[in-house]
Design goal:
It is found in: Cytoplasm. Residues 23-138 form the Ribose-phosphate pyrophosphokinase N-terminal domain. Homohexamer. This is Ribose-phosphate pyrophosphokinase. Belongs to the ribose-phosphate pyrophosphokinase family. Class I subfamily. The chain is an alpha/beta fold and 330 residues long. It has two domains: 2-164 and 310-329, Rossmann fold; 166-307, Rossmann fold (3-Layer(aba) Sandwich). The chain has helices spanning 2-14, 31-41, 81-97, 126-137, 166-176, 191-201, 243-254, 273-279, 295-298, 309-320, and strands spanning 22-26, 48-52, 58-62, 70-74, 102-107, 141-145, 160-163, 181-185, 205-214, 217-224, 231-239, 259-267, 284-288, 303-306. Strands 10-9-8-11-12-13-14 form a seven-stranded mixed beta sheet. The chain has a five-stranded parallel beta sheet with strand order 1-4-5-6-7, sandwiched between helices. Strand 9 (205-214) and strand 10 (217-224) form a beta hairpin. It is globular. The two termini are 23 Å apart. Residues 1-13 have low confidence and may be disordered.
Length: 330
């Protein structure tokens, strides 16, 4: 057993460049992240052709042999969500029909994850539908980063590896060495996520009581916990329109917080998000590159991007070499 582990470690240290059974492909959703992952694992991205007909139909063709290969396909389903989701499904279908031995969908951002239950009458459970589509297309395995709801893993009948971006974020904020730190959950639903982050940071936890009046509209009610004179870090998985984030910042400062930082795994940043963040009293928003920032967000000094390519690359190596990924959670 020890010899096998040592051999696996030696193989990892060389990267996967010499492994003829491994292939890594990318869609168009986040090519820079896929290229960074490829550099980490020591391979070149697989060659393919992805184009669109005049009416918007997707055309995809693999330009190299994948028969019998262990294939990983990187494609977050970020904006435009439906377009990137369809690309992912079509690419998986092409790999299946080209006789790939195993197809792992690497989806750093899982669209439709917020629709994981029937919270109103006569609504779909869209995240379950997406899981069914990925399996029907031919995915044999899936790798996700910070699912909005962890129970989405149960929607799949194939193995799912659920990675967390928190190790990257924890490392960053430890290096910042912020004084009198308090971690804040922006709502009750994110308490478990924020508590885990607070434990890693060795900081107390506060909660903002939020009541949503409509989709993408939130009203902050009050702060649970002592934040007076504290440096607060609001921890969430998704920043979409930034309405909740900005009102959370205002509520914390109104309760005496010295300064407010925020961090999130997925910078969706749709609609007025960038303008809201720019105009807010937020000191800095730290995000990861699961989703590529749009041009306006890239120009905003308040937004800092950390890379999770190493985290995903290490997970991909472990999955390919059939070793444990549990060490990557620390």
């Amino acid at each position: 057993m020890k010899e096998a582990k040592a051999a696996a470690d030696r193989k990892r240290s060389r990267g996967l460049g010499d492994d003829k059974s491994f292939k890594l492909f990318s869609g168009t959703a986040n090519l820079p992240l896929a290229e960074e992952i490829a550099r980490f694992v020591g391979v070149k991205l697989g060659e393919c052709k992805l184009q669109r007909f005049a009416d918007g139909e997707v055309y995809f063709q693999l330009l190299e042999n994948v028969r019998g290969k262990d294939v990983f396909l990187v494609q977050p389903t970020c904006y435009p969500v439906d377009q990137h989701l369809l690309e992912l499904l079509i690419m998986i279908d092409a790999l299946k029909r080209a006789s790939a031995r195993r197809i792992t969908a690497v989806v750093p951002y899982y669209g439709y994850a917020r629709q994981d239950r029937k919270d109103r009458p006569r609504v779909p459970i869209s995240s379950k539908l997406i899981a069914d589509l990925l399996e029907t297309a031919g995915a044999n395995r899936a790798l996700f980063a910070d699912l909005h709801a962890a129970q989405i893993q149960g929607f799949f009948n194939i193995p799912v590896d659920h990675m967390f971006c928190s190790p990257v974020l924890v490392s960053h904020f430890r290096e910042m060495n912020l004084p009198d730190l308090t971690v804040v959950s922006p709502d009750a639903g994110g308490v478990e996520r924020a508590r885990h982050f607070a434990t890693k940071m060795g900081a107390p936890l506060a909660i903002v009581d939020k009541r949503r009046t409509d989709m993408n509209v939130a009203e902050v009610m009050h702060v649970i916990g002592d934040v007076k004179g504290r440096t607060c870090v609001v921890f969430d998985d998704i920043v979409d329109t930034a309405g909740t984030l900005v009102k959370t910042v205002d509520a914390l400062l109104a309760n005496g917080a010295a300064s407010v930082y925020a961090c999130a795994s997925h910078p969706v940043l749709s609609g007025p998000a960038v303008d809201r963040i720019a105009a807010s009293r937020l000191t800095e928003l730290v995000v990861t590159n699961t989703i590529p920032l749009r041009e306006a967000a890239q120009k905003l000094p308040k937004i800092r991007v950390l890379s999770i390519a190493g985290l995903l690359g290490a997970a991909i190596e472990s999955i390919h070499m059939e070793t444990s990924v549990s060490t990557l959670f620390n």
